[in-house]
Specification:
Layout lengths: L2 E3 L14 E5 L3 H10 L4 E6 L14 E5 L5 H6 L7 E4 L4 H14 L4 E5 L6 H6 L4 E2 L1 H14 L3 E7 L4 E7 L9 H4 L5 E8 L2 E3 L12 E7 H10 L9
Parallel strand pairs: 2-3, 2-5, 3-4, 5-6, 6-7
Antiparallel strand pairs: 1-4, 8-9, 9-12, 10-11, 10-12
Length: about 240
């Protein structure tokens, strides 16, 4: 199948040591991802339809390869053997699972992430222990948080859900307390604090103010304990 190569001039500013990223699927998600990465990484986009590359536009700095994303020959032609990362983001969960497994298990790519197109099929990815992003679920959860502003909202899960990224609205009872006293047992780590619409990394000894929104990574047990502490037993995040 034909291959299109962006002119060399389009890759100015990137050297041979830049990370090589292979993106499978040039839909809206794939195209946005490619444009977000192409100024920092050597990006190659793979799609079964050559016309899909039209949406990359003139700002795309990288290569395009037409072919099936689950075909090892196509992946080799796209340079997967030199890739440091692969993202399988087509609108087919079957393609994404196969492509992700090939990248990880056959070509031993260090970083592999797959998009879950249909959230009901998440269990398939989990069976093969594939790192995933459920874009539709994340978007719905984010909108729900903006509309309802719940005290606890699960943003995402890592691995099989053993660690979760949670957004917590600090209650008045936490005002003036140090973060270390709010989360004392190592089951949670605060990644960011949003206060007055501005986010920042928490400094050592940082104290909480009522209304702060804390972005916290925590274990399942840590989340259950937090809900218990806030009197939210039996309630799920949005």
């Amino acid at each position: 199948m034909p291959e299109a190569v962006v002119p060399a001039a389009a890759a100015d500013g990137l050297d041979a040591n830049s990370m090589r990223v292979l993106i499978i699927g040039c839909g809206r998600v794939g195209a946005e991802l490619a444009l977000a990465l192409c100024n920092e990484c050597l990006v190659t986009m793979v799609d079964q339809k050559g016309a899909a590359f039209d949406q990359l536009g003139p700002d795309f700095r990288g290569r395009t390869v037409e072919g099936e994303g689950f075909d090892p020959a196509v992946l080799r032609r796209a340079g997967i053997e030199m890739a440091g990362a692969v993202a399988a983001v087509t609108s087919s969960d079957s393609v994404n699972v196969v492509a992700a497994r090939l990248a990880r298990d056959t070509f031993h790519v260090a970083r592999v992430v797959a998009r879950v197109y249909n959230p009901r099929r998440l269990s398939i990815y989990e069976t093969f222990h594939i790192d995933t992003v459920v874009s539709t679920t994340w978007g719905a959860q984010r909108i729900a948080r903006m509309l309802l502003d719940p005290p606890i909202a699960v943003v995402s899960a890592v691995g099989g859900g053993e660690v979760q990224l949670v957004e917590v609205q600090a209650p008045a009872s936490w005002s003036g307390r140090q973060l270390a006293s709010v989360f004392p047992d190592g089951r949670a780590r605060v990644a960011a604090i949003t206060r007055g619409g501005r986010a920042s990394l928490p400094a050592s000894g940082a104290r909480v103010e009522a209304g702060d929104r804390l972005l916290v990574s925590m274990t399942k047990d840590g989340l259950l304990r937090l809900k218990s502490d806030l009197g939210l037993d039996g309630q799920g995040g949005s």
